[in-house]
Amino acid sequence: MSNKQVTYRANRIYPYDNHCRNSVVSCNSSKKSGSSKLNNCVNVESRVIDTCNNIQVQINPITTGAIVKIPVVLAKLTVQFNLASIIDLPEPALEIKDIKKKVKITQCLLLQDTNVLFIKGFVRKNIDYSTKVCSNKEGICGEIHHCTVDIPFECSTPVTFNGNQPLPIINNTSNEFEYFRVEELPNDFAEKDKLLSGDFSEFNQTSTEFFNELPFCELICSKIVEFDEFSNRTYSSKGDLPFEEKFFTKIEEKMVISLTLKILQKQQVAIGPVNS
């Protein structure tokens, strides 16, 4: 048997379309005009950026020591809590393509003298899902839509200070004082008698207001482990669908969220001198 290889070359192939089969020239010309539009779709310009020169400037630090006010770490902790939610999509979806998540903290408050940390925020989710435009038993064509939702959360946790201790709270003070006054008495009293008392015609007070440093938080990292389940998946009543393809509008999800936080407070710190 011969191992000779035969190669066939197609000079021109026309698509099987009634309109194109009857007027090949017009179809070819329309393709050329369409390709010209595609060529004009994107325009890119670029240029080379020159490098700028620089010179070093001498730094003159304080080497004799100083007392500075800087943020001091009070505690570092990881908070874990569970969150369950139900999301209703605005239209029927076939499949979730991607879910991007970002944790946003709106409140992180340390209630001093109780050592309880209150945390409030939300998880912002951007959900990409596929929809149906047309379908048959062999396939589905559609579009990719997105839906952005905010899922709120709120919790409190006790804090153990594994760093510096927070500064003690100084309470405001308010003290009243009055002046001595000598007054004449009515005629019912002897002429030599006098009224010795405080002055009721005035109000005197000394008040002191202390502005304590409020501890604040920094979000170091967040971790989300989630399970999303599509509820009430049903077949479409309009048109045919391939096997196992169903629509849903409700997503039931469960999340385990871990937040690593730092609690800080501005305090005065003495920095010693630096030996030359």
From TrEMBL:
Q: What InterPro entries does the database record attribute to this sequence?
A: Exosporium_prot_C
Q: Which NCBIfam families does its entry note?
A: CsxC_fam (NF045794)
Protein name per the record:
SipL SPOCS domain-containing protein
State the species of origin: Gottschalkia purinilytica
